[in-house]
């Protein structure tokens, strides 16, 4: 067993997810099943292989710094769960 | 004449020759959706009023012009992860249940420039994570060939809509096979273009280095025409390729003489369904008979592709889906403070598979595991890509199965995530390597379910795989076979 209950709880916190007590063992099993499978990768020596994060040979795609029309504030806010005076509104962070 | 049984190019010719009106054609599809989609459940949102309005406008344009765009007045369906201004775009998630994009994806702008008709937004696995459309937060979609079976996924709604005669064409997205596999399960044609060939601007991100939009159509001719509309560089997508786009309809010629077709042994695994293997092997023989040269090749890292994919895609998903925090758009579930608000929102509004991938991704990226999992997977990606580079030094295209089996029964493997992931063995290597692939029908199983194969091309060489697929299609009548629902 690579992944423990504690690991799942930690990763849930990092992911901003709550894992309920009745589901936690299911996740532990599923993660271990998958990671055991993913161990096939360890069969291959990749010490001298460069990683590929992206298939295209692109670097720093730049454009002219020109002002163009952008989304109107009202539209940008149109899907906000809560808004006030043209701003997104969130629960109080600082007392 | 049953209009819904015709491929899109036949309907286009009828519109152009003023034999039918776009309004009449649109009404035909809307009527079918009303009477039959209750069983298939391919659409999440139907946009009947907007469709009729667009059809009316298309009819005016058709009346005034002798030349029209391929998609002018031609009704189609859009996967519900492609942003449509003013029309809900849910990604089949409770997180975006009420999300109405304030802008259009670039592909939608390109469709609109042709005055096409959009019938609605199609069902999918939540955030495109899955291969059966059972992960939709709303309802599963049923396969139009047999309603007890899955349509494949994640673009299962788009594939089912085209296969059932609820749309003349559709767009989907493919991150690990999500266009090609449902096309195969539903007996239609699906293409994943080269990474960067079609703009991803306005496609809700799942795994940004793998996602690509592409067409799902009744035949290869329709696929070529729609690629002509959607392909091309877009300044709004920094990963879009700035390369000229050929006229793909010029590839609609029957010619495989001397074409070198590579057959990768690694794709014909022991676990493969015998009927699928037989159908693909028969296609290989048929290509040989038509003058193609069959070359045995090896893609030795194929067996590592699934493990690499299911580390890379969730790692990217973890990052992309961190934006769903209950603040700027999407659902919110209240909490005592901001952290509990975000945690409550994500816990309540994401489905099981999405949560599983977010957590696996975070695990693979976290301190202590990054080198062993994520970095290792990226290095494997290099080796997978190099396999293809070496193979394409010897062959023009590669032919392989699309999935190890035909469509399976709804509910049969959904509770076994690893089993589900292993189904993607034939499709994920292309996404890792960024290559184009087209899926097309090559048989019908003894249970009456479609079998598909895929033809894989060099980067940016969609033209050659279209030509190869077209040549095979014209020599067979698989693309003329209709699903059970389309016959009603």
From TrEMBL, chain A:
Catalytic activity: L-glutamyl-tRNA(Gln) + L-glutamine + ATP + H2O = L-glutaminyl-tRNA(Gln) + L-glutamate + ADP + phosphate + H(+); L-aspartyl-tRNA(Asn) + L-glutamine + ATP + H2O = L-asparaginyl-tRNA(Asn) + L-glutamate + ADP + phosphate + 2 H(+)
A Pfam family this chain is assigned to: GatC
HAMAP family, per the entry: GatC
Protein name (Swiss-Prot/TrEMBL): Aspartyl/glutamyl-tRNA(Asn/Gln) amidotransferase subunit C
Subunit: Heterotrimer of A, B and C subunits.
SUPFAM superfamilies xref list: Glu-tRNAGln amidotransferase C subunit
EC number from the UniProt entry: 6.3.5.-
Keyword Magnesium: no
Function: Allows the formation of correctly charged Asn-tRNA(Asn) or Gln-tRNA(Gln) through the transamidation of misacylated Asp-tRNA(Asn) or Glu-tRNA(Gln) in organisms which lack either or both of asparaginyl-tRNA or glutaminyl-tRNA synthetases. The reaction takes place in the presence of glutamine and ATP through an activated phospho-Asp-tRNA(Asn) or phospho-Glu-tRNA(Gln).
Organism from which the protein derives: Pectinatus brassicae
Presence of the UniProt keyword DNA damage in the record: no
InterPro entries with a match to the protein in the record: Asp/Glu-ADT_sf_sub_c, GatC
UniProtKB/TrEMBL annotation, chain B:
Single GO term (MF): transferase activity
Keywords: ATP-binding, Ligase, Nucleotide-binding, Protein biosynthesis, Transferase
Domain Amidase: 24-465
Catalytic class of the enzyme: ligase
Catalytic reaction equation(s): L-glutamyl-tRNA(Gln) + L-glutamine + ATP + H2O = L-glutaminyl-tRNA(Gln) + L-glutamate + ADP + phosphate + H(+)
Enzyme Commission number, as recorded: 6.3.5.7
InterPro entries named among the record's database cross-references: Amidase (IPR000120), Amidase_CS (IPR020556), Amidase_dom (IPR023631), AS_sf (IPR036928), GatA (IPR004412)
Gene Ontology BP annotations: translation
Superkingdom to which the source organism belongs: Bacteria
Any one GO CC term of the record: glutamyl-tRNA(Gln) amidotransferase complex
Active site, renumbered: 79, 154, 178
Oligomeric form and interacting partners: Heterotrimer of A, B and C subunits.
HAMAP family: GatA (MF_00120)
Family recorded in the similarity comment: Belongs to the amidase family. GatA subfamily.
Role according to the record: Allows the formation of correctly charged Gln-tRNA(Gln) through the transamidation of misacylated Glu-tRNA(Gln) in organisms which lack glutaminyl-tRNA synthetase. The reaction takes place in the presence of glutamine and ATP through an activated gamma-phospho-Glu-tRNA(Gln).
Name used for this protein in its record: Glutamyl-tRNA(Gln) amidotransferase subunit A
Source organism per UniProt: Pectinatus brassicae
Encoding gene per record: gatA
């Amino acid at each position: 067993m690579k992944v423990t209950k504690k690991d799942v709880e930690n990763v849930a916190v990092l992911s901003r997810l709550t894992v309920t007590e009745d589901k936690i063992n299911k996740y532990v099993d599923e993660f271990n099943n998958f990671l055991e499978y993913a161990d096939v990768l360890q069969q291959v020596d990749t010490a001298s292989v460069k990683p590929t994060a992206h298939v295209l040979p692109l670097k720093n795609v730049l454009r002219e710094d020109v002002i163009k029309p952008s989304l109107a504030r009202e539209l940008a806010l149109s899907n906000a769960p809560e808004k006030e005076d043209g701003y997104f509104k969130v629960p109080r962070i600082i007392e | 004449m049953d209009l819904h049984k015709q491929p899109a190019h036949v309907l286009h010719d009828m519109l152009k020759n003023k034999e039918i009106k776009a309004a009449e054609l649109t009404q035909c599809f809307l009527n079918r959706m009303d009477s039959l989609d209750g069983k298939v459940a391919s659409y999440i949102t139907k946009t009947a009023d907007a469709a009729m309005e667009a059809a009316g406008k298309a009819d005016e344009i058709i009346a005034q012009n002798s030349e029209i765009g391929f998609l002018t007045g031609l009704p189609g369906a859009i996967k519900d992860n492609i942003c449509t201004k003013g029309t809900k775009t849910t990604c089949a998630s409770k997180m975006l249940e009420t999300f109405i994009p304030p802008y259009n994806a670039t592909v939608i702008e390109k469709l609109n420039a042709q005055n096409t008709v959009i019938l609605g937004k199609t069902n999918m696995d939540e955030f495109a994570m899955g291969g059966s459309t059972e992960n939709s937060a709303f309802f599963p979609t049923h396969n139009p060939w047999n309603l007890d079976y899955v349509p494949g996924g994640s673009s299962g709604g788009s594939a089912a809509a085209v296969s059932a005669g609820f749309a003349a064409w559709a767009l989907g997205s493919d991150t690990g096979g999500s266009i090609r596999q449902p096309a195969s399960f539903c007996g239609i044609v699906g293409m994943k273009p080269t990474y960067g060939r079609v703009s991803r601007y306005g496609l809700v991100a799942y795994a940004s280095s793998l996602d690509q939009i592409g067409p799902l159509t009744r035949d290869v001719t329709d696929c070529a025409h729609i690629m002509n509309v959607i392909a091309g560089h877009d300044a709004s997508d920094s990963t879009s390729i700035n390369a000229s786009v050929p006229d793909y309809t010029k590839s609609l010629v029957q010619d495989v003489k001397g074409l070198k077709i590579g057959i990768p042994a690694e794709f014909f695994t022991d676990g493969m369904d015998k009927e699928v293997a037989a159908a693909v092997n028969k296609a290989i023989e048929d290509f040989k008979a038509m003058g193609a040269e069959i070359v045995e090749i090896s893609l030795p890292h194929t067996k590592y592709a699934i493990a690499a994919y299911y580390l890379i895609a969730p790692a990217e998903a973890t990052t992309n889906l961190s934006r769903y925090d209950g603040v700027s758009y999407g659902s919110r579930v209240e909490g005592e403070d901001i952290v509990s608000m975000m945690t409550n929102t994500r816990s309540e509004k994401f489905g099981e598979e999405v949560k599983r991938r977010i957590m696996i991704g975070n695990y693979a990226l976290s301190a202590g595991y990054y080198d062993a999992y994520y970095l290792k997977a990226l290095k494997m990606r290099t080796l997978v890509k190099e396999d293809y580079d070496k193979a394409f030094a010897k062959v023009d295209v590669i032919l392989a199965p699309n999935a190890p089996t035909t469509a399976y029964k709804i509910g049969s493997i959904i509770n076994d995530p690893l089993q589900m992931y292993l189904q993607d063995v034939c499709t994920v290597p292309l996404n890792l390597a960024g290559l184009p692939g087209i899926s097309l029908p090559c048989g019908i199983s003894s249970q009456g379910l479609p079998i598909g194969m895929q033809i894989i091309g060099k980067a940016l060489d969609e033209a050659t795989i279209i030509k190869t697929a077209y040549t095979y299609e014209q020599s067979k009548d698989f693309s003329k076979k209709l699903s059970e629902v389309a016959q009603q």
